[in-house]
From TrEMBL:
<keyword id="KW-0238">DNA-binding</keyword>
<dbReference type="InterPro" id="IPR000847">
    <property type="entry name" value="LysR_HTH_N"/>
</dbReference>
<dbReference type="GO" id="GO:0043565">
    <property type="term" value="F:sequence-specific DNA binding"/>
</dbReference>
<feature type="domain" description="HTH lysR-type">
    <location>
        <begin position="20"/>
        <end position="70"/>
    </location>
</feature>
<dbReference type="InterPro" id="IPR005119">
    <property type="entry name" value="LysR_subst-bd"/>
</dbReference>
<dbReference type="InterPro" id="IPR036388">
    <property type="entry name" value="WH-like_DNA-bd_sf"/>
</dbReference>
<dbReference type="GO" id="GO:0006351">
    <property type="term" value="P:DNA-templated transcription"/>
</dbReference>
<protein>
    <submittedName>
        <fullName>LysR family transcriptional regulator</fullName>
    </submittedName>
</protein>
<keyword id="KW-0804">Transcription</keyword>
<dbReference type="InterPro" id="IPR011991">
    <property type="entry name" value="ArsR-like_HTH"/>
</dbReference>
<dbReference type="InterPro" id="IPR036390">
    <property type="entry name" value="WH_DNA-bd_sf"/>
</dbReference>
<comment type="similarity">
    <text>Belongs to the LysR transcriptional regulatory family.</text>
</comment>
<keyword id="KW-0805">Transcription regulation</keyword>
<dbReference type="GO" id="GO:0003700">
    <property type="term" value="F:DNA-binding transcription factor activity"/>
</dbReference>
<dbReference type="Pfam" id="PF00126">
    <property type="entry name" value="HTH_1"/>
</dbReference>
<dbReference type="Pfam" id="PF03466">
    <property type="entry name" value="LysR_substrate"/>
</dbReference>
<dbReference type="InterPro" id="IPR058163">
    <property type="entry name" value="LysR-type_TF_proteobact-type"/>
</dbReference>
């Protein structure tokens, strides 16, 4: 414990006193602070006296039926007050999580928008209100030591599947656009014609592993120079909206944008579909925690019509 500074040692020894000080200052008397702490008025008074002796200053001036802060007390409250409120809010959040289980789910923007959100009301209805669901949309999977997530759904190579991982959607990608764009810029007789067409791109962070236009062309054996620069976005919903608006051709992940294509807002620009050795893989990051994450995990797996990887490999 040699690394603990004298200030930290004093702080730990006087934390209850500082809490009592904050409450007395807020209530303006010992009675209200005593009720909030579940202590007697005399016990709170003793805490304040001990804190004053420890700090070597007078924090309150005693008046009839109450107290007022001294100058030293006001300076201390400016620091202690916000810290106590922040700690109180954090503790309340943890207690609320304990009483109302929370499931934190990390998924990329595309899956969150096009798969989860259309099913969210059904999920909450069938699982009940006792589970608080938090969806953390991120372009990259959470680090193992990063966000405290229960479930993650991101595009990863199939070779990385392990344990109870589930392949929700294998990556199948087509070139899609609006009927209006196709009518104005067609006919597009082959995927190679897309090199001369305005393409809409989803910016990919270095650690992300989903399909890109270059990878799509490479998979089809298409080589050549593009005649136009990409229009790039960092959010797949924006890519899709731009394609619907007729601004260009986008990569469409089949299984995600099926509803949009059924409405006719988007159509395939060519017949080519590229299957990769990757897909949306769902991982249960904390399998031994309470039952809430497992229930959400099983619900998503059932709606996707999939099985755990261990069963699929048999």
């Amino acid at each position: 414990m040699s690394g603990i500074s004298p200030a930290n040692r004093k702080l730990s020894q006087n934390l209850v006193g500082l809490c009592a000080f904050d409450l007395v200052a807020r209530h303006g008397n010992f009675t209200g602070a005593a009720d909030a702490l579940g202590m007697s008025q005399s016990a709170v008074s003793q805490r304040i006296k001990a804190l004053e002796q420890e700090l070597g200053v007078v924090l309150f001036t005693r008046i009839h039926r109450g107290v007022v802060l001294t100058n030293e007390g006001s300076r201390l409250l400016n620091v202690v007050g916000p810290a106590m409120r922040q700690m109180g809010n954090s503790v309340n959040a943890l207690l609320e999580r304990k009483s109302k289980p929370r499931v934190r789910l990390s998924a990329d923007f595309a899956f969150s928008t096009f798969w989860l959100l259309p099913r969210l009301s059904q999920l909450r209805s069938e699982l009940g209100e006792e589970i608080e669901l938090q969806i953390l949309a991120s372009q990259i999977p959470p680090e193992d030591d990063g966000d405290d997530c229960d479930i993650s759904i991101h595009v990863r190579p199939l070779s990385q599947m392990k344990g109870d991982d589930i392949l929700l959607l294998q990556e199948r990608v087509a070139a899609v656009c609006s009927p209006k764009f196709l009518a104005a810029n067609g006919p597009i007789t082959s995927s190679k014609d897309l090199l001369k067409t305005q393409l809409l791109s989803l910016s990919r962070p270095p650690s992300a592993q989903w399909q890109t236009w270059q990878g799509w062309f490479d998979a089809l054996g298409i080589v050549g120079e593009r005649s136009q620069n990409y229009v790039s976005f960092n959010n797949y919903d924006m890519v899709t909206q731009a394609a619907i608006a007729g601004d260009g051709v986008a990569l469409g992940w089949l299984g995600l944008i099926d509803d949009v294509m059924r409405t006719g807002l988007l159509v395939q620009a060519t017949d080519d579909v590229v299957d990769s050795f990757a897909g949306y893989i769902m991982s249960l990051d904390r399998p031994n925690s309470y039952s809430g994450p497992r229930r959400v995990y099983d619900w998503i797996a059932q709606r996707a019509g999939t099985k755990p990887s261990s069963a699929a490999k048999k």
